[in-house]
């Protein structure tokens, strides 16, 4: 049984030791545990999978934030998807994660089993193809995701327009990350001493996008990659900032993330979407955090095309996804975790999505 | 939470939901029914004391052809490998075809040629068959069912219930290729990378292994739906064993790992069609490893873990950083129609 190359193993051990040492100093300085939040579902999974939480010791509490796009999607939005998928003349195109999230009338998987049309897509361009292949039906793309997915969905809308497709529309629940981080810090529900900033989102928006959080709110931000060593590096940099009393934006994922981000992707997003308010599960309305179709693209807005209004939505009373998404609870601190709520029988989205904090914790629970 | 009232795709995923479906709805067939039978094939003892392995499987993959194989090759290999997991060499297979109206004859001819080729590779043949044609929409182009019988050599006894403390856990090559090849073959996913299904009949490899193992091979599990994670969990439960693998010892291809990371899949739960996990007593592990590596379908064989203890059924993985974590059964729908 071979493990890692010896030098890599030694480097990782050294990083863990550094983190533990800095964590003790940082906790001393703060007079309590250091709270660091990761805001990316892929980070949640990588942290759980590598067992990083158990390595850091008691001085650090790593909490998950609103980093899983499906999880932060408002319950009412799920119900809209169920309604659209149940219409006989409509095909709902969605990313696979949404299929098992419970709404008030079951899940999209159950809707599909009852005869509803749900098409799981990996790329929004598949929705374009579905619309071309079914000209007598309406295809609605359930647009869920952050700055990582929004540019491709924007391209889908532009492509539909270029092709003159009149049977494709978008139900946008797209969101942007920085306003949510500001809202969490401002709410002061949880003391946050540093953000592990999302790698993929930062590829698009650039590390400069977090400046206001560091400058105005005094919370250190470090952009991280996804290998265990990347995450440990980011944690070490955050802890060093806490020890030094600093609050700045640093980049521990330079091989992919630049200060300015990906200009083409941002332009694509901006050409189709304007920011407006959005409702986040567990957090509520956050101004400037939603991506809404611009007026000139409103012909592709499913809400208008089908004269929809967002219903109240349904949250299972035993589900604590809201607190988990705000970093107020860890998944294992939810009474339903692993008992009433499991990946096979999820109560809420955090247990469903491959990016959900509860799914990660359940799948990779420490032995 | 409401109970699911209809079958959902997740029920077919080879994970927890499927176990519930078998437990809830099919248990009516009585305690003697083999649907919950935990090994890949049933063992039937004849009055002559000879033992037959018997199994059946249905194949509904979409698309019908993919790099590394097609539904015909899959239908032969799947059943041959289920027999091989009991240490049996195939005596013959049955072949049931459910064809949707409109299927091109040329496609059908290609698939039957591929069935014949796979049978020759496995040293077996189709002994009996059935063909049905259904109206358009009642099936998706072509569904195949195969059943197989095989003869278990005297003295060979294999099963998930036979894991012993100290057994080495061995896999015959990198997992996840089949599922990724199917995904890449679906045109909607522009997944680049040279993914080829590992679909292959493993009865030859198994025969070589059993020779080298000299009675010390305890368990062989065909790693199809649910992948390595499901296979290890089934063995753990059958034997009440704690299996531990070293995550970095699993010979995952870099491209497969990258693709799984990108798509949010756990490579340990990805389906295979030519991979087995083998439990061998420690003292014969080196001999079995050498015999497997000498076989064309086992060149990348690796020892990935061991049976730590008997008593409590669980599967754990030691991660790159040192901590261990639980390796759970996949819960439901992973990728529909991959086999």
Layout of SSEs?
The complex is a heterodimer of chains A (367) and B (339).
Chain A (H helix, E strand, L loop, with lengths): L5 H25 L3 E5 L2 H10 L1 H5 L3 E5 L4 H4 L2 H12 L3 E5 L13 H6 L4 E3 L4 H9 L4 E6 L6 H14 L4 E5 L4 H11 L6 E4 L1 H7 L5 H7 L3 E3 L4 H17 L4 E3 L11 H10 E8 L3 E10 L8 H4 L15 H5 L31 H7 L4
Parallel strand pairs in A: 1-2, 1-7, 3-4, 3-5, 5-6, 7-8, 8-9
Antiparallel strand pairs in A: 10-11
Chain B lengths: L15 H10 L16 E4 L5 E9 L5 E2 L2 E2 H14 L3 E13 L4 H18 L3 E9 L7 E11 L15 E4 L5 H9 L17 H11 L3 E6 L4 H13 L1 E6 L7 H10 L12 E5 L1 H13 L7 E9 L3 E5 L5 E3 L13
Parallel strand pairs in B: 5-6, 10-13
Antiparallel strand pairs in B: 1-2, 2-7, 3-4, 5-7, 8-11, 8-12, 9-11, 10-12, 13-14
Helix pairs in contact in B: 2-3, 5-8
Instruction: Give the DSSP E fraction of chain B (strand runs of 2 or more residues).
Output: 25-35%
Question: What is the H/E string of chain A?
Answer: HEHHEHHEHEHEHEHEHHEHEHEEHHH
For the biggest sheet of chain B, the summary is: 7 strands, mixed
Class based on secondary structure composition and strand pairing of chain A: alpha/beta
The low-pLDDT segments of chain A are: none
Strands across the major sheet of chain B, in which order? Answer: 9-11-8-12-10-13-14
Largest sheet of chain A: 5 strands, parallel
| Count of spatially separate domains of chain B | 2
**What's the total count of β strands of chain A?**
11
Number of helices of chain A: 16
Give me the CATH superfamily of the largest domain in chain B: PurM-like C-terminal domain
CATH topology of one domain in chain A: Rossmann fold
* Secondary structure tally: strands of chain B: 14
Cα end-to-end separation of chain B:
31 Å
């Amino acid at each position: 049984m071979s493990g890692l190359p010896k030098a890599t193993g030694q480097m990782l051990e050294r990083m863990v030791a550094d983190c533990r040492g800095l964590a003790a100093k940082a906790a001393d300085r703060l007079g309590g545990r250091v709270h660091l939040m990761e805001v990316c579902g892929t980070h949640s999974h990588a942290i759980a999978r590598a067992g990083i939480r158990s390595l850091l010791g008691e001085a650090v509490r790593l909490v998950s934030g609103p980093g899983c796009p499906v999880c932060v999607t408002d319950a009412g939005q799920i119900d809209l998807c169920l309604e659209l998928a149940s219409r006989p003349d409509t095909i709902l195109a969605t990313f696979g994660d949404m299929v098992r999230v419970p709404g008030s009338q079951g899940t999209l998987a159950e809707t599909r089993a009852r005869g509803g049309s749900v098409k799981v897509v990996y790329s929004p361009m598949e929705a374009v193809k579905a619309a071309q292949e079914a000209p007598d039906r309406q295809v609605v793309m359930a647009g869920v995701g952050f700055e990582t997915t929004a540019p491709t969905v924007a391209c889908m809308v532009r492509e539909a327009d270029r092709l003159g497709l009149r049977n494709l529309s978008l139900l946008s629940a797209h969101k942007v990350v920085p306003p949510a981080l500001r809202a969490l810090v401002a709410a002061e529900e949880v003391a946050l001493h540093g953000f592990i900033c999302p790698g993929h989102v930062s590829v698009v928006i650039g590390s400069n996008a977090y400046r206001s959080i560091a400058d105005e709110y005094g919370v250190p931000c470090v952009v991280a990659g996804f290998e265990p060593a990347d995450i440990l590096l980011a944690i070490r940099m955050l802890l060093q900032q806490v020890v030094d009393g600093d609050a700045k934006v640093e980049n521990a994922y330079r091989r992919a993330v630049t200060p300015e981000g990906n200009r083409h992707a941002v332009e694509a997003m901006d050409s189709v979407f304007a920011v407006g308010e959005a409702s986040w599960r567990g957090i509520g309305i956050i101004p400037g955090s939603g991506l809404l179709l611009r007026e000139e693209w409103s012909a592709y807005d499913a809400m208008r095309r089908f004269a929809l209004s967002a219903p109240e939505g349904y949250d299972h009373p035993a589900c604590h996804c809201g607190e988990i998404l705000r970093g107020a609870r860890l998944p294992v601190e939810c009474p339903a975790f692993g008992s009433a709520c499991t990946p096979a029988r999820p109560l809420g989205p955090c247990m469903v999505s491959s990016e959900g904090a509860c799914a990660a914790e359940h799948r990779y629970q420490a032995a | 939470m409401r109970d699911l009232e209809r079958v959902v795709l997740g029920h077919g995923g080879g994970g927890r939901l499927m176990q519930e479906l078998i437990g809830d709805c099919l248990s009516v067939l009585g305690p003697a029914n083999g649907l919950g039978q935990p090994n890949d094939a049933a063992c039937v003892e004849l009055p002559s004391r000879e033992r037959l392995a018997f199994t059946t499987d249905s194949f509904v993959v979409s698309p019908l052809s993919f790099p590394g194989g097609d539904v015909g090759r899959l239908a032969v290999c799947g059943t041959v490998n289920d027999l091989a997991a009991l240490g049996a060499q195939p005596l013959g297979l049955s072949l049931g075809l459910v064809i949707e109206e409109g299927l091109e004859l040329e496609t059908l001819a290609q698939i039957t040629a591929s069935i014949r080729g796979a049978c020759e590779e496995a040293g077996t043949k189709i002994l009996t068959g059935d063909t049905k044609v259904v109206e358009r929409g009642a099936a998706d182009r072509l569904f195949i069912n195969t059943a197989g019988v095989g003869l278990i050599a005297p003295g060979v006894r294999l099963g998930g219930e036979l894991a012993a403390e100290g057994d080495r856990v061995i896999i015959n090559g990198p997992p996840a290729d089949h599922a990724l090849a199917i995904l890449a073959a679906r045109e909607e996913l522009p997944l680049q990378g040279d993914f080829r299904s590992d679909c292959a009949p493993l009865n030859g490899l198994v025969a070589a292994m059993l020779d080298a193992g000299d009675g010390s091979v305890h368990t062989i599990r065909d790693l199809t739906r649910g992948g390595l994670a499901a296979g290890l969990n089934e063995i753990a439960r059958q034997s009440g064993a704690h299996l531990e693998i070293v995550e970095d010892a699993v010979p995952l291809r870099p491209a497969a790992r990258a693709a799984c990371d990108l798509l949010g899949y756990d490579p340990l739960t990805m389906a295979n069609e030519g991979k087995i996990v083998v439990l061998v007593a420690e003292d014969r592990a080196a001999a079995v490893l050498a015999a497997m590596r000498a076989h064309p379908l086992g060149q990348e064989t690796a020892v990935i873990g061991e049976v730590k203890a008997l008593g409590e059924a669980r599967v754990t993985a030691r991660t790159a950083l040192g901590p261990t974590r639980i390796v759970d059964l996949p819960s439901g729908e992973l990728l529909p129609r991959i086999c």
